Amino acid sequence: MKDIEGTHITVNCWNEWFEHPALMILEHYDNKEYDNTVFVLGSYCFHTYSNLKELYKGKRIIIYQMEQLFNGPDEHWVNVEAILGNLEKVDKTSGDEIWDMCLINKAFMGEYGIEVDKVAPFKFCKSLEELDSSIEPEIDVLFYGNLNKRRSKILADLSYYFYFKNVSLCWLAGLDMDTQKKYIEKSKIILNLHHTDTFNRQEQTRIFYPLINKKCVISESSTKNYFGDAIVETPSLPSTIENLLELDRYKEQAEKGYNLFKKSSKYAMECA
Prior knowledge:
The chain is 34% helix and 18% strand. The protein is an alpha/beta fold and 272 residues long. The two termini are 29 Å apart.
């Protein structure tokens, strides 16, 4: 675990992959309203609520839940039952809260009697605007993240489709954050693929960073799209990729996505 300190708040991160959301939280919530508050990212999956209370004695705890929660045969990297059991123990009378980035997760937890105090989708974060947009991209399409069977098949199919079309397709897994950033910087299009066929939740954690850095994002269609026209959702990945690469249309979409996300984050009202 790692703590990132702000002026008024602390953000607890399970590992480096939670640092981007942590910086977003610092940028938007490090103010007097949340004085003496610890935002917990990821660590609640592996540490009990009582452990966190012991670690942060005298502080208010807000668990910002970012996992895709569902029950079913589809594979999952965390124990959903254990997460729910942990969240059930959050003491709301002490001022502690549960936040989530997704309305669908809120509804899911509600079925188990767990109240989500705030739904806070990801926002634009100025401090994450750090990649060099003047670098000419070498990679046409990039996917990064966990490679399960579903995603591997989609990427294999895309590789076969584009084999003779002079389109470069790259996917990454298991690399450190700094190396991953270099690949994003050198890519034209960032691809978002859902974890499962059944539960097509939007992967906000993957999408928001490239948008902030003026990258064109293509995604499979989601149950709910929190980014609107800032990204391109499509049921046909091959034809959409071809269209955006043709005449460098991806550049226009990247600029459009950046501006729309920045504007929506500035004025959007969060759901309670």
